[in-house]
Each structure stands twice: as structure tokens, then as C-alpha cells.
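Exercise 7 asks you to align residues with C-alpha cells for two separate proteins.
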Amino acid sequence: MLLQTRNKPARNPARGVRRFFANLGPGLITGAADDDPSGISTYAVAGAAYGYLPLWTALCSFPLMAAVQLMCARLGLVTGRGLAGVLRRSYPRWVLWGACLLLIVANVFNIGADLGGMAEATEMMTGVNSLYWTPVYTLLMLGLLFWSSYRVIARVFKWLTLVLFAYVAAAFLAHPDWHAVVQATVVPRIEWSSGFLATLVGILGTTISPYLFFWQASHEVEHERG
């Protein structure tokens, strides 16, 4: 026993971290992808306009998003097909085309908001007009889609999720009123105005985005095949 213990190789912490991230599945990327530029813009506008008031929506939207991801992930794992493939096999054609049409409309607006958000953020850092950055980011995304592979993109996206730790740092660097933060999070309050209700719809819409349904199921299928 002593000999076996002595001969046992020492654990490499760096290798353990690499193995941990290698085992993280599509759910991590899908959840992180939901925190897109359009979502960040929506949350920023909500915070600037209403302060801590909309914080309670996080307790409602996160379980809903997790439930949607879980259902779509199981659907992809069990059927071995994406959501569109399941709709094509199990429902009439008009249901499939209706869902795809709604997805296209939602994605077009979402992509436009994402490109605009990235361009505006880059303008803040560089001073170069966002109108120049929008086509740059568009061409970059198209180049990745045409000349890169699914595995490379998924691997890069997985490591990019580390950027989300910036939220933790920002929460402390902003020096918020923690008592007000906790109170606004656990005690729901609604301001009965058109602006606040529109903000609530925007928060729920950007948190539970339609592309999540299709992306999660397809990502699970590709992950199992890879």
C-alpha cells in the first residue's frame, strides 16, 4: 500500500482545471451566449432608468431559462435531432414553418441588436464611429461561419465564458447599496407604467431568447457526435 502511494503520480492542478473545462457541456455555452450584447444593453437601460427596481426579475427569469435549456437538451439527447428536426417529424408542416418563420424574425432583430451593441461598445473604447465597426463585426462573424469549424467555435466560446467573471468584479467595484440590492431582489415591486412594463418584456425576451431553444438542442446533438 505504501509503495502504491509513493508511485502514484502527483496531481497536476493545471491539468485538472483543463479537464474540468473540457467536460463542461453545451449548457455552459448556451447560458453564456444568452448574455449577448443585446441583453447587456437591455439590462443597462433597465438599471439606468429604474435602478434596483427590476432586480427581482432575475429570480424569475433564471429558473425559466434553465428549464427551457434542460428541456431542449433532453430533447436533443433523446431524439438525436435538433428542434427543427423534431418539429418536422412530430407536427404538421405549418407548425414547423411557423416556428422557423418566428425564429428568423426574432434572430434578425437579435443579430442586429448584437452587432449594434458590439459596435457601440467598441466606439466607447476606441472613439471610432460605430458605423464603421458594425460591418467589421459582421464580416468577422461571417468569416468564422464559413472558414472555421464547429469544434473550433465551440472551444473558443467555452473559454470566452470566463469573461463573465467580470460581472462579479464589477458588482464590488461599483460599491452598490447592498441592503437595497437584497431588498429589491427578494421583494418584487412593479411600477405600473408603460415604460416599466416594456422594460419587463424586454428583460424576459432577451433572457429567454428563441434561438436558445434551437441552439441548445442542436448543440447537444453535435456534442454527442463529436
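Second protein for Exercise 7:
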Amino acid sequence: MSKIFQFGQDIPEYNFKVINERDARASAGVMFLLGILSLFSFILSKNLFWAELFSITFILEFIVRIFINPVYAPYMLLGSFIVSNQKPEWVEAKPKKFAWVLGVILGLIMAYFIINNIISPIRLLTCVLCLILLFLESAFSICLGCIVYKKLNKKLYKCPGGVCEVSQKRSIKGRFLVLLAFVAIFDATYYGLKDYKYMPKVEHKSKIVSEKIVEDKDCTPPQWAIDLGHKDLWLEHHSCK
């Protein structure tokens, strides 16, 4: 039973419990995908069914991770299956546990809204915050909860993304300048194509305006022009033909 109810695994190379970061990232990616799909479903159909179903699975996932064992959590099992052919990347379990406790808190907040059937901006922001955290972990291996835990505890050995071992950030000034240059080129190209694309439409619009002016003009010849037999001449003189 002690092996079932535990947080983290014992690996001979480390004297502390660890979590496979690859499993965690894969499960975060699966949860983010399902979460964003359920959010779009709500936006398009105004139906909360899929969003609430995902929220319930989110809550159960983190409860199992914290109070039973992460390896038995449904999304962790799915994630570990997806990356089963990859070499494990072991990280210290304590920062992950702190981050996932925050996940339980967010899940309890969502559970309160679901049980009481409350639709509010706070509920939406909670869901969006969960999706942002999942995206950061799955795409960039950035565990914000782990970073907060590191700030509170200096004696850590192996954190996700190696943030415990790195004393200073890598210098990326040169690459950042290249990125700015790329953004500037893209911006100039976009506005250049936009002006070229819509230039004919501006001319067409002015043509429509001029035609409208002609249509709005009173082209009914007066009685005196009709009596004198100058109806056609009057129409031509007033640009009505």
C-alpha cells in the first residue's frame, strides 16, 4: 500500500523522490488541447457541457496526483503512454507537488462555480489561467508553481527545465535583435500588401459615390422645356443622359 499512496518515485541515482518531467509535460499538453477545445465549444455554442466535463476531469486529475499517486492519475497515464519511447527526465518531486497543490486549489474554485451553476468573469478567468499554466508547461517546460517554490526554498537540486542548476540566464541579445528585425520586416510587408490590395477598392468606392450623386439628381425636365420641345436638350445639358 505504501507504494500506491506516495508522491514521487525512488530512483537509485537520486537521494530524493522524483517525477518524470516528460510524463508531466505530455499530460499538460493533452489537458491543454482538451481544455482549449472545450472553451471554444462554449464560445461557439454557449453550451457548458464540454467545459464542465473537462473541469471535472481536471479536478479529479490533480486530486489523484496529490492524495494518491501521480502515476495513477488519468492524464498522467495517457501522457506516459504517449512518451513511453522517450528517455525519462527526472526532476525533484517537491516543486511539482507544490505546483499541483495550486492546481487542486484552482480545481476547487471551478468546482464551486459548477456546483452552484454560477457564470461569472472570475470563472472564465480561472479557466483561462489553468490553460495558460498548462500551455507554459507543455510548450516551454515552464512550471510557474515550481518557480514560486524555488523562490521560497533555496535547497533544491533538480527542478523542471533545470532552473535550480542554472545560476544566470543565457545571453540572447543577438537573437532578440534578429527577432525584432523579423517583426519589422513582417510589419512593413503586411502594410505594403494591405495598401496595394485595397487601393482598387478605394477607386471603386469613389466611382460608386459619383454614380450615387447622379442617381440622386432631379432629372425631371420642367414643363417649359417640354412645351418648347427641348426636353432632350435639357436632359443632356443637366447630365441626365
